[in-house]
Amino acid sequence: YGRADLVREALSPEVRADILGSGAIFGSPTKHSSVPKGVDHLGPLRSLITEEAGGREVPVVAIGGVGVDTAAACILAGADGIATVSALLAHDTAEGSRR
Q1: For 26, how many CA atoms within 13 A lie in the half-sphere containing its CB?
Q2: Cys staple from 74: which of 21, 37, 41, 62, with CB 3.0 to 4.6 Å?
Q3: What is the largest CA-CA distance in the chain?
Q4: What are the tens digits of pLDDT across the range 44-53?
């Protein structure tokens, strides 16, 4: 998750990943053992993926504690999208999670 060796492995011809996750950006109740890397991790990760992807566009998705208040910062820092679990589960209804 976000380590150069794992990025290279994921982008190798044998694996050829179409999308990569960032590893934990923030602390998260669903990723107890992950060490948050913060949004500053996303720019260098984006650069590494671009460099190693051999001309392919491989999106990076920010994950780990990302929610409504932090999603924009992740995109501005270099993520192409976000993935969230805890932010959705924090609401009692589907209507609440859409806000």
Answers
A1: 19
A2: 62
A3: 44
A4: 999 999 999 9
How far apart are alpha carbons 96 and 3 in whole angstroms?
Answer: 35
Neighbours of 86 (CB within 10 A): 16
Residues 6 or more apart whose CB falls under 8 angstroms from that of 31 comprise 24, 64, 65
Contact 82, 19 (CB under 8 A): no
Could you identify the residue written with the tokens 């929610």? 67
Quote the pTM value: 0.82
Residues 27 and 34: their CA atoms lie apart, in Å, by 8
CA distance 61 to 95: 24
Phi, psi of 23 (to 5 degrees): 80, 170
- What are the pLDDT digits (tens) for 51-78? 999 999 999 999 988 988 999 999 999 9
